[in-house]
Amino acid sequence: MNKVAVLSGDGIGPEVMAEALKVLDVIAKKYNHTFEFKEGYVGGIAYDKTGLPLPEETIQLCENSNAVLFGSVGGPKWENLPPEKQPERGALLPLRKHFNLFANLRPVKIFPSLSHASSLKQELVKDGIDIIFFRELTGGIYFGQPKKIAEDGKSAVDTMAYKEEEIKRIAVKAFEAARLRNKKVCSVDKANVLMTSILWRKIVTELHEKEYSDIELSHMFVDNAAMQLVRWPAQFDVILTENMFGDILSDEASMITGSIGMLSSASLRDDQFGMYEPSHGSAPDIAGKNIANPIATILSAAMMLRYSFDMDKEASAVEKAIQKVLKDGYRTVDIMSEGQKEVSCSMMGNLIVERL
């Protein structure tokens, strides 16, 4: 029995989640698997119902599951709550910390049929882009202490802190992935300014020399990496970086694909437990309109099949079904272009199911 905690959350979360579950139901029938889906509240909707963005019942549900499928959280309705009650600060970050989900994997891949949707010139993406970010997810400035606003409201402090073991374990994940890809890792830091980055570069270099000398390792300052991603993205394969840099760079890279609605992600720890979520937000302005792009959530479900359940064949089937739908010219509004066929969120899910 493969137990999945389903946390649809806010905004378009429930709409895109419904399509991912539709796809997983077909996978279960086609490949003779059994999934047990149990839903829990998280984010704004959880706050409205329980007074907490991450209720204890939701944590227990996740602890009793093999994986978590996450939708999205947040919206203007909850922006003025105290920081610890706001959906993202009070739910998403604590979930990552509670379950020690230190490795965030964000693939950035251009489907051939969508190369025209990229924000970059065609000559920069015509040969395809296939990058995967390995972002350290439970350390750095998002979690370092002290973190506070002064009582007079005129100053504030956030602390960026890293330990050797935090850097080493995410670097191992990146190097291991590189061995299965093109044996290239670019480690991104700011070692010309930040003490944490000096340590980061030292640890990554030592690990490379001792255990992964077969991998081509390069180092790049984060400001240069931001420029290089839009100048020549094809130079990258595996990008390894810390929490805040990874957050910013992977969002920048998402526009290379044409829409953040196409990007999946996985947050993993050392065992097979993981949390899988689309890279986009809750998009409250289009919630309930059945026009959201469900592909990022469906691709996140495919990552769950691959990383938590060792179902590589099934994951590949989902990815190929998506490619077929796109090749046939079907588009949600965010990736729509002249001559293509616009479909709703639910219809996109139906079309992917048909190809499966």
Can you put this structure into words, describing what you see?
With 356 residues, this protein is α/β, with parallel strands linked by helices. Helix content is 41%, strand content 21%. It has helices at residues 13-31, 44-50, 56-63, 87-98, 122-125, 164-179, 195-211, 222-231, 243-254, 295-307, 312-327, 345-355, and strands at 2-9, 35-39, 67-72, 103-109, 130-136, 144-149, 156-159, 184-189, 216-221, 238-241, 264-268, 274-278, 330-331, 341-342. The strands form three sheets. Strands 2-1-3-12-11-4-5-10-8-9 form a ten-stranded mixed beta sheet, with helices on both faces. Strands 6-7 form a two-stranded antiparallel sheet. A two-stranded parallel ribbon has the order 13-14.
What series of H and E elements makes up the topology? EHEHHEHEHEEEHEHEHEHEEHHEEH
- The low-pLDDT segments are none
Number of contiguous helices: 12
The SS-based structural class is alpha/beta
Please state how the strands of the largest beta sheet are arranged side by side. 2-1-3-12-11-4-5-10-8-9
Report the radius of gyration as a whole number of Å: 20 Å
Shape: globular
Produce the secondary structure layout.
Blueprint: E1 2-9, H1 13-31, E2 35-39, H2 44-50, H3 56-63, E3 67-72, H4 87-98, E4 103-109, H5 122-125, E5 130-136, E6 144-149, E7 156-159, H6 164-179, E8 184-189, H7 195-211, E9 216-221, H8 222-231, E10 238-241, H9 243-254, E11 264-268, E12 274-278, H10 295-307, H11 312-327, E13 330-331, E14 341-342, H12 345-355
Parallel strand pairs: 1-2, 1-3, 3-12, 5-10, 8-9, 8-10, 13-14
Antiparallel strand pairs: 4-5, 4-11, 6-7, 11-12
Helix pairs in contact: 1-10, 1-12, 6-7, 8-9, 10-11, 11-12
